[in-house]
Amino acid sequence: MEQLAKTVVFADLTGSTGLFETAGNVAATQIVTRCTQALGVHLARAGGRVIKYLGDGVLALFDDPVAAVDASARAQDVLRDLPADAGVSATLGVKTGIERGFIIEHDGDCYGDAVNVAARLSDRAQANEILIGESVYKALPAAKRQSCHSLDRLTIKGKAEPLPVWRIDWSRTAETTMTIPLEMYELHTGQRVIQRIDLERL
């Protein structure tokens, strides 16, 4: 199996558990699906490739770590800019983990230490936080590193030793990037069709 160097992005919604309690299963499922699909489209148009949707999260791969960080910094704007009739609650946010390394793609999924670390960083992140590993930090230009704050070393589940982790100041990073309205992006491309849940059947 071929190993390729990729930047792995795990983006997860926060606040969705409470949404199911307040809005009910059907409405909450519709809202969460709209949000995750919007995040997937956003990551794809920013240069990523969506591997899969994970309930209230998205897993995507990027060739360019800078593009991955910039896209993640705009994720909160994506939710805020959804149409009012989408029913998105102000309590919903996004937390993201990003790591870079060699991965293997197999049978529609991806595997590797970078995948595991990105997932754990997403778990450790708070609402609207972006946590990145050392490989991503080292790949960023000096200007981008100014938006990074070292958290020293964090204990990551499954890792023998604590890992150096940085938090991205996404508000500063987002100021240097541009967002294209979702309606300007074609969901169905010639290379890949982003599958959507049929909400009418829920």
UniProtKB/TrEMBL annotation:
Phylogenetic lineage: Bacteria, Pseudomonadati, Pseudomonadota, Betaproteobacteria, Rhodocyclales
Domain of life: Bacteria
InterPro entries: A/G_cyclase, Adenylyl/Guanylyl_Cyclase_3/4, Nucleotide_cyclase
Family matches, as PANTHER family: ADENYLATE CYCLASE, TERMINAL-DIFFERENTIATION SPECIFIC-RELATED, PH-SENSITIVE ADENYLATE CYCLASE RV1264
UniProt domain Guanylate cyclase: residue ranges: 7-122
Pfam short name (any one): Guanylate_cyc
One MF annotation (Gene Ontology) recorded for this entry: adenylate cyclase activity
GO terms for biological process, alphabetical: cAMP biosynthetic process; intracellular signal transduction
Protein's recorded name: Adenylate/guanylate cyclase domain-containing protein
